Amino acid sequence: MTRLSSATATAVRGAGVLALACAALFVTAAPAPAATNYTCTKPAYRKTSVNYGIYAGQSWEWKALVGTGQSGNSKARVKEIQCLLKYTHKVDPGATDGLWGPRTRAAVVKYQSSARLPADGIVGPQTWRSLRVGGYYVP
User: pLDDT by residue (tens digit) across 42-65?
Assistant: First the structure.
C-alpha cells in the first residue's frame, strides 16, 4: 500500500469535502415554487352605465382577445376567465393561476361548444359577453 504525503492527503481530503458539499447542495435544493392558485370572489352581477353581467373580482373585460398567442393575456383577465368557467359555468380550467395553458384552453373550447359559439379557444367579445350574461350567446 502506498502512503500519501501529508500535502497530498490534505488535498484529497479537501476535494472529498468539496464533493460532499456539492452533493448536499443537489439533495437539499428546494423544488421550484408551484404557480400561485388564486381564489375567486363569489361571482356576482355587476352593473355599470354601459355593461352588466357576472363579475368574479379579477377583471371587468368585455372585448380583449385572450388565448394562445394573444396580446390580451394579462393574468387578471385569464384569472377572470378561469373563475367564470369554474364557478359560474361548471367547466374546470384547472388551477386558477392566471396562466393560459392547455387545460384553460380546453375548458374554453368546451364552454364555447356548449354555448353554441365558434369553438376556437380564444376568448373574444362574443365569448366574454356569453360568460358575463349567463352562459349563452347574446348578439
Answer: 777 787 767 788 888 888 888 999
| Location of C-alpha cell 464533493 | 19
The angle at the Cα of 77, spanning 102 to 84, to the nearest 5 degrees, equals 75
Q: Which residue has the higher pLDDT, 103 or 56?
A: 103
Exposure string of 113-125, with b = 16+ CB inside 10 Å and e = fewer, is eebebeeebbbbe
129 contact partners, CB below 8 Å, separation of at least 6: 53, 62, 137, 138
Q: How far is CA 3 from CA 10, 15, 37, 43, 110, in A?
A: 13, 18, 60, 77, 74
DSSP H/E element including 55: strand 52-55
**What would the grid cell of residue 14 be?**
479537501
What percentage of residues in the chain have a pLDDT greater than 90? 42
Asked whether the beta carbons of 106 and 59 are under 8 A apart, the reply is: no
Q: What single-letter amino acid sits at 98?
A: G
Q: Count the neighbouring beta carbons within 10 Å of the beta carbon of residue 63.
A: 9
